[in-house]
Amino acid sequence: MDDAERFMAKVNKSGDCWEWTGYFDTSGYGQISMSGRALLAHRISYVIHHPLTIDLREHREICVCHTCDNRKCVNPSHLFLGSVADNNRDREAKGRGNQPKGEKHRDAKLTEQQVREIRIKYANGGISLRQLALEYGINFGTVGKIISRKLWKHI
């Protein structure tokens, strides 16, 4: 079975949106492993149905956007190429741009007070990112992003 056949075996085409039935990443997008790499299903669907002269696996700056706004959808007629700016404009136009920040976000694992504590403890020295991660039950990379203000920028 080639990659396209393996891909299509995980697609439910019973509705207008062709829904991915395989694995989903934490953000709700379908994912499939090909050539040892985890790839987003809607991007692979676009490539299978709209052969390109460029490799979307290498050009992450090119977004594959959904007209239907359904993350599970891999219907090639619902997908279009755009820049990050195009994707952001599309998200805003569909009313999904104003995500709650901080502890109001659906995926938040910390409170604003805990974020402040992490920053203060690290600034005072004597504690590593890994120790803070263990203490607060989060990934040490997340702790680094909190300290560098790539996450929780508003605090």
Structural key phrases:
alpha+beta, elongated, 2 domains, 155 residues, three-stranded antiparallel beta sheet, 7 strands
What can you see in these coordinates?
The protein has helices at 3-8, 41-49, 84-93, 112-124, 129-136, 140-147; strands at 11-12, 19-20, 23-24, 30-34, 37-40, 63-66, 79-82. The chain is an alpha+beta fold and 155 residues long. It folds into two domains: 3-93, Alpha-Beta Complex (Homing Intron 3 (I-Ppo) Encoded Endonuclease, Chain A); 102-147, no CATH class. Strands 3-4-5 form a three-stranded antiparallel sheet. α5 packs across α6. The longest helix has 13 residues, at 112-124. The model has no long low-confidence stretch (mean pLDDT 89).
Structural topology:
Blueprint: H1 3-8, E1 11-12, E2 19-20, E3 23-24, E4 30-34, E5 37-40, H2 41-49, E6 63-66, E7 79-82, H3 84-93, H4 112-124, H5 129-136, H6 140-147
Antiparallel strand pairs: 1-2, 3-4, 4-5, 6-7
Number of strands: 7
**What spatial order of strands do you see in the largest sheet?**
3-4-5
Identify the overall geometry: elongated
- Hey, roughly how much beta strand do the residues contain? 5-15%
SSE class: alpha+beta
CATH architectural arrangement of the largest domain:
Alpha-Beta Complex
Q: What's the rounded overall pLDDT mean?
A: 89
Please work out how many helical segments DSSP would assign.
6
Poorly predicted runs of 5 or more residues: none
For the termini, the CA-CA separation is 51 Å
Please describe the biggest sheet, giving its number of strands, its sense, and whether it closes into a barrel: 3 strands, antiparallel
**Number of domain modules:** 2
Q: N-to-C SSE series?
A: HEEEEEHEEHHHH
Q: Percent range for helical residues?
A: 25-40%
| Radius of gyration (Å) | 19 Å
User: Assembly type of the shown chains?
Assistant: single chain
